[in-house]
Amino acid sequence: MLRSVLVSLAATAATVTGLALDPRATTPYDSTWHPSTYTVAQVQSLLSQKLTCCTALSVVFGSKVSYPNSTTYDASLASYWSIQEEEVTPTCVFTPSTKEDVSLAVFVLNVGAKVFPGKCNFAIRSGGHTPFAGAANIEEGITVDLKNLNTVIVSADRTTVNIGPANRWQNVYSQLDAQGLSTSGGRVATVGAGGLITGGGISFFSPRYGFVCDNVLSFEVVLASGQIVSANATSNPDLWRALRGGSNNFGIVTNFKMRAFAQGEFWGGYIGLTVDSLQTQLQAFEDFTGSPNYDPYASLIYSLVLDPASGTWSVACSIEYTKSNPAVVNPPYFQNFTSLPQTFSTLRVSSLTDKTVELAYSNPIGFRQLFATGTYGNSAKQMRAIYQAGNSTVQSIRNVPGLQWSLSYQPEPTIITSKAATNGGNSLGLDISDGNLVNVLLTATWNNTADDARVNAAAKALFSQAGASAKKLGVTNPYLYLNYAAPWQDPISGYGAANVAALKAASAKYDPSGVFQKQVPGGFKLK
Ligand SMILES: Cc1cc2nc3c(=O)[nH]c(=O)nc-3n(C[C@H](O)[C@H](O)[C@H](O)COP(=O)(O)OP(=O)(O)OC[C@H]3O[C@@H](n4cnc5c(N)ncnc54)[C@H](O)[C@@H]3O)c2cc1C
After folding, report:
1. Burial classification of residue 11, based on how many CB atoms lie within 10 Å of its CB (0-12 exposed, 13-18 middle, 19 or more buried)
2. Which residues form a coiled coil (predicted)?
């Protein structure tokens, strides 16, 4: 039926100037025909009926395209993590059900951009957990909400698992837990797979298996042409590597084939500490991160949390020890933290799903949010300097309504950064020569738009001071974790010149007309 609509529209096609569309003029990665059903002429004629890209998609996909004030559209917006992303209002939301839907839509949008220059921009959205506006949503454009691409399929031999990009990690883990399996992924139940994996990904399992992206055996990707390809060690290996950290710059990932491994319940949870013993804790962190015998089962997120009303700080440590079958309770590797007086503890043996649900409680949706990040050599002195910078820069905004302000330190030791080399490589630009590193994440939450500029200014000041102290202490590192970066940071250039050049080469090869650079403006672009 839809096909006949297109064919009849093609019969009455008006000439569209500026288009040089020969259906057979193809290159391997820039075909001007869609491999399933539609020719360029058909799509071109559809668009030339003075339709917009949204209405053209509606003709092809019917109710999979939704508009403001409809249940699907409103539910899509309401499910972004931050208010800033929720406030962005696309002209329509396209909700594909299959990779073929994604493929045809990209084809239509690609042709559409030539008919209506600047009017067919789109955004790619999986779990919608990027804090800043426009990363996975778009004003006056089309948001491709992949929410129905959320299957989890374990291979018969139980060594791999296929994950649809819009899975929230809770859905992945609950299915794998039930089978005594797991995979590398996010640590908070509600976060999406698509953004986390293509941006790198830090997992409880990272000391065992590296960054999450290092565990992707194959990506299934829709390219700018609409072509669906695999990217893995033997097929399009340059694209495989590019997608390991290169975010949304190459195509829309419709499936991740991930390494799976046996995993049972393990010990971990939160402990609360006071800042009275801050110096001891930061030294414990440095020793933990820098140990030549880093325990690969040990994962730590050390967070300093401000109470803006009183101006006092407290500490919450997420400590997880992923050894299972049997689980190990209170392992010695955490002793320098667990032996300190605790204000609370949720330490227990439980499933991975349970652990990620616990972390989700402290990260609810529906607030104004800011992430900003830095990476530094492992140094208690630097961590103290960042804490001091965090404390001084927040003073001018302590009266911001609803303010929450916390600093999280996460070990990024060589046991993590060395894994890429044996797993096919990634684009992040980190390796053993960087030494043991610390990833720093500032999380700020507040209520009102009116305070956006002030909060951002304080965050910038914090990282400027952190950079200055890192320089003094000789612990600078250019890497910025893309998934924690603020929109005013430039994580991709921190991957280093060689990686940036490889990413640009992959973009030129797989997306020669730059659809994912220009027509998908959100997120972090290659420059
Ligand atoms: C509460 C919370 C907890 C977090 N915990 C962790 C953690 O434990 N470990 C960690 O490493 N990070 C963590 N993060 C950071 C997280 O990795 C990023 O926010 C990530 O972008 C989330 O992915 P998403 O699919 O939900 O995001 P989205 O906002 O949907 O997407 C993020 C970016 O990726 C692009 N993208 C999404 N899907 C695709 C796709 N299929 N193909 C191509 N491009 C795509 C989007 O266009 C967008 O630019 C956390 C974030 C939050 C808010």
Report:
1. exposed
2. none
Give the tokens for residue 266: 């393990």
Q: For residue 481, give the ligand 1 atom closest to its CA.
A: 11
Please list, residue by residue across 178-200, b when 16 or more beta carbons sit within 10 angstroms of its beta carbon and e when fewer do.
Answer: eeebbbbbbbbbbbbbbbbbbbb
- Collapse the DSSP code of 383 into the 3-class scheme (helix H, G, I; strand E, B; otherwise coil) and give the result: helix
Atom index in ligand 1 nearest the CA of residue 212 equals 11
How many angstroms does the Cα of residue 140 sit away from the middle of ligand 1?
22
Burial class (CB in 10 A: 0-12, 13-18, 19+), 69: exposed
Per-residue pLDDT tens listing for the chain (527 residues)? 343 333 333 322 222 222 333 332 333 334 445 555 667 777 777 777 767 899 989 988 999 999 999 999 999 999 999 999 999 999 999 999 999 999 999 999 998 998 888 889 999 999 999 999 999 999 999 999 999 999 999 999 999 999 999 999 999 999 999 999 999 999 999 999 999 999 999 999 999 999 999 999 999 999 999 999 999 999 999 999 999 999 999 999 999 999 999 999 999 999 999 999 999 999 999 999 999 999 999 999 999 999 999 999 999 999 999 999 999 999 999 999 999 999 999 999 999 999 999 999 989 999 999 999 999 999 999 999 999 999 999 999 999 999 999 999 999 999 999 999 999 999 999 999 999 999 999 999 999 999 999 999 999 999 999 999 999 999 999 999 999 999 999 999 999 999 999 999 999 999 999 999 999 999 999 98
Beta bridge partners of 349: 267
**Ligand 1 atom nearest 250 alpha carbon:** 43
Residue nearest to atom 7 of ligand 1 (CA): 186
Task: Measure 261 CA to ligand 1 centroid, in angstroms.
Answer: 23
Query: From the CA of 282, how far away is ligand 1's center (Å)?
Result: 29
Q: Distance from the CA of 200 to the center of ligand 1, in angstroms?
A: 9
Q: Which residues line ligand 1 (CB under 6 A)?
A: 81, 124-130, 135-136, 146, 165, 186-188, 191-192, 194-196, 198-199, 201-202, 247-248, 252-253, 363, 483, 522-523
- Give residue 471 CA to ligand 1 midpoint distance, Å: 30
Question: Ligand 1 mean position to 113 CA, how many Å?
Answer: 27
Candidate from 95, 124, 416, 442 with most ligand 1 atoms within 8 A of CB, to mutate: 124
Candidates 359, 419, 360, 351; CA nearest to 181 is 351
The domains of the chain, with CATH numbers, are 2-146 (3.30.43.10), 152-262+497-509 (3.30.465.10), 266-488 (3.40.462.20)
AA identity, residue 43: V
User: What is the Å distance from ligand 1's center to 198 Cα?
Assistant: 8
Q: Which atom of ligand 1 is nearest to the CA of 166?
A: 25
Cβ-based neighbours of 331, under 8 Å, separated by 6 or more: 267, 295, 297, 298, 321, 323
Q: Which two tokens stand for residue 475?
A: 């612990």
Distance 526 CA to ligand 1 centre (A): 18
